[in-house]
Each structure stands twice: as structure tokens, then as C-alpha cells.
Specification:
The strands form 2 sheets. The protein has a 6-stranded parallel beta sheet, with helices on both faces. It has a two-stranded antiparallel sheet with strand order 2-3. It has one domain (about 5-185): Rossmann fold, CATH 3.40.50. Helix 2 (about 60-70) links the parallel strand 4 (about 55) and strand 5 (about 80). It is α/β, with parallel strands linked by helices and about 190 residues long. It has helices spanning about 35-50, 60-70, 85-95, 115-120, 130-135, 150-160, 180-185, and strands at about 10, 25, 30, 55, 80, 105, 120-125, 140. It starts with 8 loop residues before the first strand and ends in a 5-residue tail after the last helix. Helices cover about 35% and strands about 15% of the residues. Helix 1 runs parallel beside helix 6. It is globular. It has 7 helices and 8 strands, in the order βββαβαβαβαβαβαα. It binds magnesium ion (MG). Magnesium ion (MG) binds near residues 13, 15 and 109. The site of magnesium ion has 6 residues, from loops.
């Protein structure tokens, strides 16, 4: 397992990781999710301190794109309709010129298991499936949506003295752009 000090980027699944796995299904087919503000703060802090962050989810909705755009993640790093997460994780590594050993991946369910095994650090929440617990380097004591993301991002940044909040630094900007619109149509990255 790679030491947290060597991690240069993060990649996370969404449902069961940023959320407790619950979705509220609306009549029009949209799904509503509840996110944890402390997780969100840690993601923004990672991005502004130079860590690329990928979102790799089996889901597909405009709300996922706008939520993570608002945390300063560009649409090109948001992978939706991802079945086996590993190919998308490798695509993210290639885009950012990273070795997979430099990336921390967090996931909770069967499609995440291969990526958990391949990543420099694979971590799953306490309520992850058996396959993930077997594949992960770390089984967190936090459950999905209950500070799981915050805990590991904060620990990683602190280990590198990069847990830095600068109120003067602009953040929270949106990457909403043509890539975003194209991705929403196809559910996939466009390059
Ligand atoms: Mg999941």
C-alpha cells in the first residue's frame, strides 16, 4: 500500500461514498441525493491545494455534474455511467499524467472492487460490500455519507502539510461549459 504521503490525486464513487446510498426517486425519474458538507469542504480543499479529484459513478444525472462542478471539479473529471470503475480510473490517471500508485480511490460496492485493488490506496467505508472490504487497503470506521470522504481526504492532506484553508483564495467556481452539456447528453466524457 502506498503511504498517504505519496498520494497526488483522489477518485471517488458517489452513492454509498459521498451519500449513505439512499436515493429519493421522483415521478419524473430524477433521483435526489443528500451530500455531507464536511465531505464537500475537504474536496474543495484538496482541489485548491493542487490535487486532481475524479468522480466515477454508475449514476447519471445533471445534479451530479453541477454538485461536483460547484466543488471545483471540472466536468472532464466526472465519469458517469461507469460500470467497472477501473478503466475510467486509468483514463483519469492518463489525463493527469499520474501513475495509479499515486491515486487514492474510495468505493463501496462490487463495481468498485477492481479499482480499489489497483489504486495506490484503496479505501472503502465501514458499510461497504464484502468484495470491497477484501480488495481495499483500508476499511474506514466511517460509513458512506457520514464523513467517510472528509476523514480520508483530511488525513491525506495533513500528512503532506497541505490541509490549508486560505479564505482569500477563490474557489467554488463552476466549470459548467460545453463539455458539461455534451457529457450530460452522452453520460460519458467526450475526449
Ligand atoms: Mg457506490
Amino acid at each position: 500500500m502506498t503511504d498517504l504521503k505519496n498520494i497526488k490525486a483522489f477518485a471517488f464513487d458517489v452513492d454509498g461514498v459521498f451519500t449513505d446510498g439512499s436515493v429519493l426517486a421522483l415521478d419524473n425519474g430524477d433521483l435526489l441525493r443528500t451530500f455531507n458538507a464536511k465531505d464537500s469542504f475537504s474536496i474543495r480543499t484538496a482541489v485548491v491545494n493542487g490535487f486532481p479529484v475524479a468522480i466515477i459513478t454508475g449514476g447519471c444525472s445533471e445534479s451530479i455534474i453541477s454538485r461536483f462542478n460547484s466543488l471545483s471539479i471540472p466536468s472532464a473529471d466526472i465519469y458517469q455511467m461507469s460500470k467497472n470503475k477501473l478503466p475510467d480510473l486509468l483514463h483519469f490517471c492518463k489525463r493527469h499524467n499520474l501513475d495509479i500508485s499515486e491515486v487514492l480511490f474510495g468505493g463501496d460496492d462490487v463495481p468498485d472492487a477492481e479499482a480499489l485493488k489497483a489504486a495506490g490506496v484503496g479505501i472503502c467505508p465501514a458499510d461497504a460490500c464484502v468484495e470491497c472490504k477484501e480488495a481495499a487497503d483500508i476499511v474506514s470506521d466511517r460509513c458512506g455519507g457520514k464523513g467517510f470522504v472528509r476523514d480520508i481526504v483530511e488525513r491525506t492532506l495533513r500528512s503532506q502539510n497541505k490541509w490549508i484553508f486560505n479564505a482569500e483564495q477563490p474557489w467554488g467556481f463552476s466549470y459548467k461549459d460545453e463539455v458539461n452539456a455534451a457529457q450530460f447528453k452522452t453520460g460519458r466524457y467526450v475526449d
